[in-house]
Amino acid sequence: MITRQRSPQLLALAFACGAAIGCQAEHANPEHCHYAAGDLTCADLYGEDRPFCVGPADGCPGAEAHYGCVAEPPAYECHSPCGAGTFASEDNTCPGSDDESEAEADGGDTPECGNGVTEADEQCDDGNEINDDACSNACILSICGDGITQATIGETCDDGNTQSGDECASNCTLPGTVIWSKIYEFESCDAAAVAVTSMGGADLVFTCGGPRRKLMGVDSNGDELWTVSTPTMTSGNPSIAVSNVDPDKFVIGGQLNGQGHVRYHKSNGSYDWISTIPLDSSTVYNVAIDNLGAVVAAGEVAGEPMLHHFTATGELEWSHFDASGGDFFAVATGPDNQIWVLQSLPFQVHSYSATGELLWTSASLIGHSKDDIGVDAEGNAFVVGNTAADNIDNFRIHKLGPDGVETWYKIHPSTGVDAHGNAIAVLPNGTSVVAGYTVGESQSQVGLLSWHSAAGTNLQEITYEDDDHPTTLFDVAVSTQGYAVAVGTCGPLKQLCLLKVTL
Q: Nearest CA to 471 among 491, 495, 443?
């Protein structure tokens, strides 16, 4: 805290006034002249209406004639007798001005930040010169977003705002700080997907110990709410999306008896409707829900790309089988319910309108693997893929504008070990989070989360190497409430685990 001292000259002047004109009586109480023993008479009689006693002071010429019990103390005075007497007076013989504070005129201390007393318009005053504690040097209570990193209130950074998606999380901790981690009883897990809910929890679909799918819902602390087996979902890539229109209902995709399968579930895991793609050798790899609640399912039919569009109640509105090349592996929706689909071969993006019109097809992107796509609030698409060189994987991020033209791509710097990206999630401002795995200091595989700005700058990269943290992360979902949830496997038994981290 910075202490601002009163002027020594002003203190000397006030003291000289009292001594020179004889305004200080034998029994005066100069420290608190208006609320001392004499004042108690007025306070007892009139309470808060007229608590102060004002009267002529012996030896002080020019005192005002008006005196008695009053509501407000005089503007200023010079050591008038009151502490042991009956009256406190307003003494106009003492120098001063109308805008001087009472404390300055009577020789008391001026309100000042840093004197250890909270006064005037101060929020706090801890009497020290430490700016990064609970009370700043401006005598303002420390809060997240004030631009000062306050370790005493748990901050590890403070960039002057409470926005997610930059170098400092919305709660003034570094992005990736673990809020909680959970390991569940399911073992031998090899695939999973996650979506966040409006209540701060998450819904999951996963395969552990066999091809049968399971669903699980957890609350905002990661505690299990319900678990449901879906024995009909026997193959295909795990995928899940939560509805913003019908709160916390969600859709999953996969395969049933050799045909693509879509299931729309309630928030407790039971389902509302099921739709099967009536084509042999069809599979749904990924699903999305647009702003109107419509469901989009992307996949393949016998190796050829497939895209289906359903209403929120499960009626098929349109489908596409006309693109050539490999499967549609990932899908996302965004502004105006536009649809973006990632194709595995060639590695490129197709965009469709909500009514099924093909809007554009991007040029082929560098790198190739079946990975993920996300979209920001402005309609920019972010694609994660992987490129192998010398048997080492490094993930790439590609940014495409709303017209499908590539804006930039970034490749993870080679460190001599794998840095593989499995999934990408995108905040409305274009900040992206990649989930995957790398090799840690222990030379074993560890979970990886990597943050990138809308311009492609690497903001933060976290590996989780403790025993209770994942060896790989399959998927990540972000919330505008300032957190992300990632799903993966933990420990030698490959148990299903979740991480909730700051954004």
A: 491
